[in-house]
Amino acid sequence: MNIARRIARIHTAARTMAKALRYRCLSGNIAVAVEQGTLIRTGDLLDRLGADNLKDGQRSWYGRHTAKAYRATHLGADTVRVWAQHRTTGKWIHVFVYQPTDPALYAALTAYKATRHLVQADYAEVA
Q1: Cα radius of gyration rounded to whole Å, the chain
Q2: 94 backbone dihedrals φ, ψ, rounded to 5°
Q3: Contact 45, 54 (CB under 8 A)
Q4: pTM score, two decimals?
């Protein structure tokens, strides 16, 4: 079976399921990797570092800085995306996920003014 027909079948099946299961089906193995911890969202890293008090807008800008740093080190390519529920609104959003040790995550911490304080030695030990 060619890839286009396989994707079409996945989308057809996803439309007939409950919303949570639909997004889980669309994300496939990437969602499993996020649940296992082999891939993380930028918000997951901020939570690990104790920055769960950052506003949603600041978390979003940190994610943008991370994506920019990732593109700079990977010749303009984007990382993989996964469908996830927003932590406050509950809406389903498409977010980038990274390896937990990806240098782009930590480069963005120092590049973004609102997260620069997390790079200090006290916080770095937590990660």
Answers
A1: 16
A2: -100, 115
A3: no
A4: 0.72
Q: Which residue has the tokens 């943008």?
A: 64
CA distance 68 to 95: 14
Closest CA to 59 of 8, 96, 30: 96
Residues 8, 1 contacting (CB under 8 angstroms) = no
Helix axes 103-111, 56-73, angle to 10 degrees: 120
pLDDT at 103: 92
Cα–Cα distance, 8 to 15 (Å, whole number): 11
Residue 66 burial class via C-beta count within 10 angstroms: exposed 0-12, middle 13-18, buried 19 and up: buried
pLDDT given at position 127? 52
Instruction: Label residue 14 by pLDDT band (50, 70, 90).
Output: low
pLDDT in tens, 97-125: 999 999 999 999 888 888 888 776 454 55
How high is the mean pLDDT of the chain? 82
Q: Categorise residue 87: left if φ over 0, alpha if ψ from -120 to 50, beta otherwise.
A: alpha
CA distances, 33 to each of 6, 19, 95 (Å): 21, 20, 14
